[in-house]
Design a protein that fits this description.
Helix content is 32%, strand content 18%. It is an alpha+beta fold. Helix 3 packs antiparallel against helix 4.
Length: 219
């Protein structure tokens, strides 16, 4: 993704710099996110994995039939009962496994948790834009294979507290929408190293205000 386009997207949100915490909801189609960041859209079990910050690098990856069977088994084992709450827990385990599977093949298994500005351009590292995009792609694979009963994959969105400087920088997350309910959940893989289960929390409660109050990985 060209640096100029990435910067321009961030500047869209900078108008709220003095307004405190801001939520940048996006109600457009989920796949529109890929167009916004110039990422090739996922299709079926094929995804384009973002890395190097801002999706500068995109690597094609296809989940095999064996991978899908393993994911199904993981989700079945993780869910303690047939409910929306347990489906979210199962999704967390599936995403953790998918990150590990992809990372070992393309080199992002070395991705460190959180943000490291010095790592921009490093194809082994991922920022929140990379993570939100990849997690959305992985959840679309789950959805395409009929593994989501209580949820639908939503459009990634961002929050910020730009008045706090770097500590409140714009942060992106993938989104899972609960069916037959207005509830939406942030599915945040950026917080942890590659392969860790993401945090899945209500979008109303999700925002990393400081390093001492990061949401827990969903176990």
């Amino acid at each position: 993704m060209p640096a100029e386009r990435f910067i321009s997207l961030l500047l869209v949100f900078a108008t709220a710099v003095l307004a405190g915490a801001c939520t940048h909801e996006r109600d457009g189609p989920t796949l529109g996110h890929y167009d916004d960041f110039s990422v090739t859209r996922p299709e079926g079990n094929v995804v384009y994995v973002c890395s190097a910050y801002g999706c500068k690098k995109q690597t094609r990856f296809r989940f095999t039939d064996a991978d899908i069977a393993e994911i199904k088994a993981i989700m079945k084992k993780a869910a303690k009962d047939d409910s929306a709450v347990e489906e979210r827990r199962a999704v967390a385990y599936a995403i953790g496994w998918m990150e590990t599977r992809v990372g070992k093949q393309i080199g992002t298994d070395k991705d460190r948790p959180g943000m490291d500005f010095a790592a921009s351009g490093d194809p082994t590292q991922q920022d929140c834009v990379d993570e939100a995009t990849n997690t959305t792609s992985y959840m679309l694979v789950l959805q395409n294979n009929g593994l989501l009963k209580y949820h639908t994959v939503g459009t990634p969105f961002a929050k910020d507290q730009l008045w706090r400087g770097v500590a409140g920088w714009t942060h992106w997350t993938a989104v899972l929408k609960e069916n037959d309910s207005p509830r939406k959940f942030a599915v945040d893989s950026w917080i942890y190293a590659n392969g860790e289960n993401p945090a899945i929390v209500d979008t109303e409660k999700w925002y990393i205000s400081d390093l001492a109050s990061l949401p827990d990985s969903t176990k």
